[in-house]
Write a structure and sequence with these properties.
Length: 50
């Protein structure tokens, strides 16, 4: 009997495909620019410049 705590292989591939599709969808919508801008603002606030 196998004592594996990993997800079955088809589920793993499905999740990888879903993650890739979500990344592509976000890039097409222009979300990379928004996320980058927010990250810069947070960084600047953290070090006290912004």
């Amino acid at each position: 009997m196998k004592n594996s705590k990993h997800a079955p292989v088809p589920v793993t591939y499905l999740l990888i495909l879903l993650a890739a599709a979500s990344c592509v969808f976000g890039a097409v919508r222009g979300e990379m620019k928004t996320v980058s801008r927010k990250a810069v603002n947070i960084c600047m606030e953290c070090i006290g410049i912004g």
